[in-house]
Amino acid sequence: AGARPCIPKDFGHGSIVCVCNATYCDTLDPLVLPPPGSYVKYESSKAGKRLERSEGRFQHSLHSPGLLLTLNITTLYQSMKGFGGSLSDSAAMNILRLSRPAQDNLLRSYFSPCGIEYNLIRVPMACSDFSVRPYSYDDVPHDYELKHFRLLDEDVKMKV
């Protein structure tokens, strides 16, 4: 269980990337909480592991040296809205260059239950360091009401 086997590609820098194409993209089995007293670990490595799943049990001996982990699940310190990434100009351009089946596989690997289940996306406001050119949505000085704010065609076609 865990990740499907990676189709490896090495660009000559000593680390492997997994190929995502029209017929294959990395996916995961649905996440299932382990029974009490046990844990699940997902590990990736430079040597080629890609979200390799393993299970273990916590030791129940108070006399053995090592780490004692106490979880108080009744005390919450923060709330989590979700997980995600950024959709920059360059990411959108690369995704749109893929065939439609490859796009579907890639997006499924990020957003579906068989992927990593992203539920948030951050879209940069105008130009970012991953844009192909500098631009802004409103270059009119003192336009605090944003009356001259305009999305560019590329934003509507690639990101929105």
From TrEMBL:
The lineage of its organism: Eukaryota, Metazoa, Chordata, Craniata, Vertebrata. Pathway: Steroid metabolism; cholesterol metabolism. Residues 80-160 form the Glycosyl hydrolase family 30 TIM-barrel domain. Signal peptide: none annotated. GO terms for molecular function: galactosylceramidase activity; glucosylceramidase activity. It catalyses: a beta-D-galactosyl-(1<->1')-N-acylsphing-4-enine + H2O = an N-acylsphing-4-enine + D-galactose; a beta-D-glucosyl-(1<->1')-N-acylsphing-4-enine + cholesterol = cholesteryl 3-beta-D-glucoside + an N-acylsphing-4-enine; a beta-D-xylosyl-(1<->1')-N-acylsphing-4-enine + cholesterol = cholesteryl 3-beta-D-xyloside + an N-acylsphing-4-enine; beta-D-glucosyl-N-octanoylsphing-4E-enine + cholesterol = N-octanoylsphing-4-enine + cholesteryl 3-beta-D-glucoside. GO terms for biological process: cholesterol metabolic process; glucosylceramide catabolic process. The gene is Gba_4. It is an enzyme of class 3 (hydrolase). It is a peripheral membrane protein. GO terms for cellular component: lysosomal membrane. It is found in: Lysosome membrane. Keywords: Glycosidase, Hydrolase, Lipid metabolism, Signal, Sphingolipid metabolism. This is Glucosylceramidase. It comes from Piprites chloris. Its EC number is 3.2.1.45.
